[in-house]
Specification:
By secondary structure, the chain is α+β, with helices and mostly antiparallel strands. It is built from 8 helices and 15 strands. Strands 4-3-5-6-7-8-9-10 form an 8-stranded mixed sheet, sandwiched between helices. 46% of the residues are buried. The mean pLDDT is 89.
Length: 333
């Protein structure tokens, strides 16, 4: 007999049944995220056929050019999530301030932060892109979310996940009890459990992923680390270099094959490029739940206390032994 088909809805409902204290609010957030992912996936797959390729002619709060699909994905997520009745506020890469829940809709006990479309600079060349999200329980009193609710360390996340829009669309998430992957079956419009209990291989494949175009601006420790991976220092077997330029795609490969993903700071910009709240912390949570490790070069990512919604940090994610090796080299800085 073949394995039973498990939809993401059935999987989440089963998880909820194991916790009698569950109210359904948290489950509803995850289900609405899966709905938004289906809508975004549909538009990503037909992007070349309609007028949603290219930039939207404006910049976001980060000073980055907004792509049309970026804007569409952000609008879809906000539209779906503000109406679910389980959230008190939303933080998005595309919004400078917290997005409130309109008075016409019920507010709930959770807050969410997301990057609506990671890797959007790759949209026009048909490279895999993704959505990243992080969910925390609301801490403050009152109906609406405050900065206190969003600026929580990654170790306090209730759930984190990402959607990869590639040759297939995958939803990968953790609620703190393992990492599970679901693949969208377009013939029935359902996410089906395809990768239960995902674990990062240890030590995994010898693969490092970093944008070496910035190598002349790196610290000495970072430069020596990459020379080690190339086999130029330490006398070891060289690693393979793989870099897509879309964090979700690079991390997804690392999750499945092992290795290390890096986006270091530079001497002039030690804070790096990636955002802690809705890019780095959620993927670090998934990484550690899958048996891997995370660091900003000094501190475990999940122990970093955020100070700003759009705070940037360096990041190293992957197989534990490779991340520990990176920490040893970076400690020299």
């Amino acid at each position: 007999m073949s394995d039973p088909i498990v939809t993401v809805e059935h999987f989440i409902a089963e998880q909820e049944r194991r916790h009698p204290e569950a109210t359904g609010a948290f489950t509803d957030v995850l289900l609405q995220l899966s709905l938004a992912a289906k809508l975004i996936s549909r538009s990503v797959n037909k992007a070349g056929l309609v007028d949603i390729l290219g930039d939207a002619g404006k910049e976001n709060v980060q000073g980055e050019l907004v792509q049309k699909l970026d804007e569409y994905a952000n609008d879809v997520l906000i539209h779906v999530l503000t109406r679910c009745g389980s959230l008190a506020g939303i933080a998005s890469e595309e919004s400078e301030e917290i997005v409130p829940i309109p008075a016409a809709y019920e507010a709930g006990p959770y807050v969410i932060a997301f990057d609506p479309l990671d890797g959007s600079s790759n949209i026009d060349v048909n490279i895999s892109i993704g959505t990243i999200f992080s969910i925390h329980r609301k801490r403050s009193r009152g109906r609406d979310a405050t900065l206190e609710d969003l600026l929580q360390p990654g170790r306090d996340q209730c759930a984190a996940g990402y959607v990869l829009y590639g040759s297939s669309t995958m939803l990968v998430f953790t609620t703190g009890a393992g990492v599970h992957g679901f693949t969208l079956d377009p013939t029935i419009g359902e996410f089906l459990l395809s990768h239960p209990d995902m674990m990062i291989p240890e030590p995994g494949k010898r693969i490092y992923s970093v944008n070496e175009g910035h190598s002349t601006t790196w610290t000495e420790g970072q430069q020596r680390l990459v020379r080690h991976f190339r086999g130029e220092e330490g006398g070891g077997t060289p690693f393979s270099s793989r870099y897509v330029g879309s964090m979700v795609a690079d991390f997804h490969r690392t999750l499945q094959y092992g290795g290390i993903f890096m986006y270091p700071g530079t001497r002039d910009k030690p804070e790096g490029k990636l955002r802690l709240l809705y890019e780095v912390a959620p993927l670090a949570f998934i990484c550690e739940q899958a048996g891997g490790a995370s660091t900003d070069g000094v501190t475990r990512v999940l122990d970093i206390q955020p100070t700003d919604v759009h705070q940037r940090v360096p990041v190293y994610l992957g197989s534990r032994s490779h991340v520990e090796l990176a920490s040893r080299y970076l400690s020299e800085d």
